[in-house]
Amino acid sequence: MSSEDTVAALSTPPGEGGIGIIRISGPKSFEIGKKLFFSSREITNFKNRKLYHGYIFDRRNNKTLDEVLITFMKGPYTYTCEDIVEIHCHGGMIPVREILQLIFSLGIRPSEPGEFTKRAFLNGRLDLTQAEAVMDLISTKTQNLKDVAMKQISGKLKEEISHLRTELITVLSNLEAKIDFPDEEIDVEDMSSLKERVSYIRKSLYELIESFNKGKIIREGVKTVIVGRPNVGKSSLLNILLGEERAIVTEIPGTTRDTLEEVINLDGIPLRIIDTAGIRESTDKVEQIGVKRTRDSMEEADIVLVVLDSSQELKDEDKKILNMARDKPSLIVLNKADLEKEFHEGTVNELAPDIRKVKVSALKKEGIDQLEKYISELVFGGEVMETDEIVITNERHYNSLKKTDNVLASAENGLEAYISEDLVSVDIKEGLEILGEITGESAGEDVIDEVFNNFCIGK
Ligand code: GDP
Ligand code: ZN
C-alpha cells in the first residue's frame, strides 16, 4: 500500500438505506470526483468541505447513475490526512454498485479492510490505540465499551503510554551516559535513584494491567451460570432476567434440554447467562450426572447464581451445589419466596456463610431489582468507573503491558544489585520497544496488519 494509490469504498453498511456514502481517498480523488459529477450549474472551483448537489454521470454510455450530494475535503485535515471525496448517493445496492464500478473503471482501486483508518495511522493522525478504539466504537453493543472507546480515541491511553516511554528514555539516557563516560564527573543520577524511577513506572504499569480485570468484563461480559437442582426455578429466573419468555419453563423436572446462552445488558455490563438446562438426565444415575455437570459449568463461569427452592427442604444435592459454589464469586437466590418457607435459612448460612443471599420470586417477579443490584456489585465489587480512569480493554495492550513489566522487573533487580549498566539498559530498551508496540511507534508490519485485518471494508 502506498499513498500514491487512490482507493474507494462504500463507507456505510451495504444494503438498503436512505443514503449510502462512498469515500474516495488519495491524490487522484479530486480529479475523479470532478470527472463523475455533474450539476445544473457550472462549478469551476469546489469549496473545501461544502456539499454540492448534482448527478453522477457515466460518460461511457451517457447514463445518469444517481442523484447525489458530493463534497471535496482537502488533506491533510481529513480522516486519512489525504484528499477525500465523499459521494452521498441513494443507499441501495444498485446505485452504490454502479457508482463504485464507474470509479474503479477510472483506475481507482477498491480499499482494503480498514484501509482508510490504516492510512490515518500511517499518516500519523491516529496511533494504534486510537485506530483500535475506532473499531470498538463501531462494533460495540454496550455503553461501557463505547465510553472507554471514546476516551481512547481522544488519546488518553496513547498519552499515558508515551508518558511512560519518556520516563524510560530518561532512565536509558542516564545509563548510557554512565556507559559512555565511566570515569568522568558528569551529572548523572545514581543507580538507586534510577531504580526509583523504574519502580514508579512499574507502579503505573501495574494500574493499567490491573484495569484489564474490569476491561475484560467490559468487552467480553461476565459468564454467569445459573445452577440448582431441577425445578427450583432456574429457567424462570433466566426468563425474567432476559425480560422475555426465551427458555422453556416446565413443571416436569429435567425438561429443559439444551444449554442456552443469552446475553443481557446489566448497567452496561454484558451478562452472558448460561442456563445449565438438563442438569438432570432422566436416568437413575441422575444425582451424579447432575452434580458433575454443575461442577463443569461452574468451572467455566465468572460468577455463579445458585438457585434454591425455599418452599422445599434443603436436599443433599442443594448442599453439594452450595459447597461447590464456595470457590467462586456467587450469589444464592432463595427462589419461590411467595410460597411457605420449608427450609431453614440457618442451614444455608452455615453451609455458605460468605455468600450473599437474596430472596426472590421468579413467579411473582419480586426481588429481581435486588438480585440485579447484587450481581453488579459482585461483578465490579461496587466500584464505578471514574471518568478519567484509563481502562485497558484490549488483550493486545494487556499482553504488551505484562511483557514490559517483566523486563522492567529484571531492570529493577539489576539496578538494585548494581549489575552492569549495559545489562540494565538492554532491559530498558526492550521495555521501550514493547511499549511502543501498543501505540504503533515500534510495531512491526505483522502487528499493524493484525490490527487492521479485523476491520471491515470502508472503515
Ligand atoms: P428449573 O428446572 O430449575 O429450570 O425450574 P423452572 O424454571 O422450569 O420452574 C419449575 C417450576 O417452578 C415451574 O412450574 C415454575 O412455574 C415454578 N416456579 C418457578 N419460580 C417460582 C416461584 O418463584 N414461585 C412459585 N410458586 N413457583 C415458581
Ligand atoms: Zn430449566
Describe the protein's topology.
Blueprint lengths: L6 E4 L6 E9 L3 H8 E2 L12 E8 L4 E11 L10 E8 L1 H13 L3 E2 L4 H8 L5 H12 L3 H11 L2 H25 L10 H30 L1 E6 L6 H9 L17 E7 L2 E7 L10 H15 L2 E7 L6 H10 L4 E6 L9 H7 L4 E4 L8 H13 L14 H22 L4 H19 L5 H9 L6
Parallel strand pairs: 1-7, 8-10, 8-11, 11-12, 12-13
Antiparallel strand pairs: 1-2, 2-6, 3-4, 4-5, 5-6, 9-10
Helix pairs in contact: 4-5, 6-7, 6-14, 7-13, 9-10, 13-14
The protein binds guanosine-5'-diphosphate and zinc ion.
The site of zinc ion has 4 residues, from helix 8.
Question: How would you sum up this structure, described in words?
Answer:
The protein is an alpha/beta fold and 459 residues long. It folds into 3 domains: 7-111, 2-Layer Sandwich (Gyrase A, domain 2), CATH 3.30.1360; 133-216 and 394-453, Four Helix Bundle (Hemerythrin (Met), subunit A) (Up-down Bundle); 223-380, 3-Layer(aba) Sandwich (Rossmann fold). It contains 15 helices and 13 strands. The protein has helices spanning 29-36, 93-105, 115-122, 128-139, 143-153, 156-180, 191-220, 234-242, 286-300, 316-325, 345-351, 368-380, 395-416, 421-439, 445-453; strands spanning 7-10, 17-25, 37-38, 51-58, 63-73, 84-91, 109-110, 222-227, 260-266, 269-275, 303-309, 330-335, 356-359. Strands 3-4-5-6-2-1-7 form a 7-stranded mixed beta sheet. Strands 9-10-8-11-12-13 form a 6-stranded mixed beta sheet, sandwiched between helices. Helix 6 (156-180) runs antiparallel to helix 7, helix 7 runs antiparallel to helix 13 (395-416) and helix 9 packs parallel to helix 10 (316-325). The chain is flat and about 85 Å long. Mean pLDDT is 88; it is low at 254-258 and 278-288. Guanosine-5'-diphosphate binds next to helix 8. Residues 228, 230-236, 249-251, 256, 335-336, 338-339, 361-363 line the site of guanosine-5'-diphosphate.
